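User: Fold this; tokens only.

Assistant: Input:
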Amino acid sequence: MTGPETLMALAVDHRSQFEEMAERCGADPGRIEDFKLLALRAAEQVADRREGFGALLDSRYGQKALDQSAGNGLWIGRPVEQPGSRPLEFESGPDVESELAKWPVQHVVKCLVFYHPDDPEDLRRLQEGKVLTLFNACRYTGHDLLLEVIAGKHGELGNDTVAKAMRRFYDLGVRPAWWKLEPLASDAAWEAVGSVISEFDLHCRGVVVLGLDAPMDALLESLRVAAGHDVVKGFAIGRTIFADVAERWLKGETDDAEAVEVMAARFGSFAESWMEYSHH
């Protein structure tokens, strides 16, 4: 496997959040596609053809952006989950392999699962089965998998919670190329994550930290803690960068150029901070 040493991604694969926003702003949902093109432009501007930058984009509202991203050098991840589903459902229906077979092989399959190791057993088994099905489909079609696990919405986050969840998936034989994890508050929690990965999969690219719509300062602090650990390779942040810009743009209070400029400035400052924290 080859791939970037660092991965700093602008996450704009949101679907339900954009639908809610368009409704709130009284905007035509058709415009979401055009906003995602602006977000892609902001990511391209920051990346400036350098390695280690990427974007998460969906097929529902991001297809134009996906088409435009071909050949621009960005790492691209694409979601397969039905937004908000728990137990996990695939957006394209149960036959996820047929869906992946249509995707360019360089696109990385992103799947978010709301999973806590203390979930009821039947829910856990259902979700584990879905993730295993997806991993096998990825292996068959030759795609890398980025598995995003969010545990904190459905239970306490102790120092070993996320590591325990990851161990479960490894025990099933799931080997994601990337993990996308919520910010962990303690060094001990990140150490636990690192040791699970090194125990099970030396080929794993590592972890990117997600943003959960946190305020910029809180997120920078989370990134600073994460950057102290070799297993963490970067971040995939979305709403903290685009949410208020998207809202203003959908209401017609800001234009394309300004929207791109603001998103690029924020994404760029996260990237600079990350590089500074991780001393790469």
